[in-house]
Fold this sequence. Notes:
Elements: E1 14-16, E2 22-24, H1 25-28, E3 33-38, H2 45-56, H3 58-63, E4 66-72, H4 76-86, E5 91-94, H5 99-103, E6 107-112, E7 115-120, E8 123-127, E9 133-137, H6 145-153
Parallel strand pairs: 3-4, 4-5
Antiparallel strand pairs: 1-2, 3-8, 6-7, 8-9
Amino acid sequence: MSQVEVGKPVPDFTLPATGGGELRLSDLLGSQHLVLYFYPRDDTPGCTTEGRDFTEHYARLTEAGATVLGISRDGIRSHERFKDKYGFPFQLLSDEQETVCELFGVMKQKNMYGKPVRGVERSTFLVDRDGILRHEWRKVKVPGHVEQVLAALKTL
């Protein structure tokens, strides 16, 4: 699979989702914009803060016509615990095979305590109702990020 590009259609994908079953990108298109945020790991400080920020602004995001989805390599069991613990109102998708992470180009070599590790680079993508990638934020810094996403939604 090739990587996504701003201004081009996002290839369809299917991933296991919290709440049971699978979520298919093409099933969501048409009525809502999609905010896909990729994060490194469930229940870690930065990822918890990011999830809480999306939760805090969830009403504004949905009023702007967006569906929010969090994606990481963690399994569904971990996602269910993480979602329940913090009351996230959106679904979390499990990409244990890293297929969608690779499609969006978020798998990167990172440095953890002086050792190279391969992991998810915190990134967010805004896909319009027609399935076109309209905005991307890579190397996301959590403070103020959701406001950037809201501002971009207003331009669609």
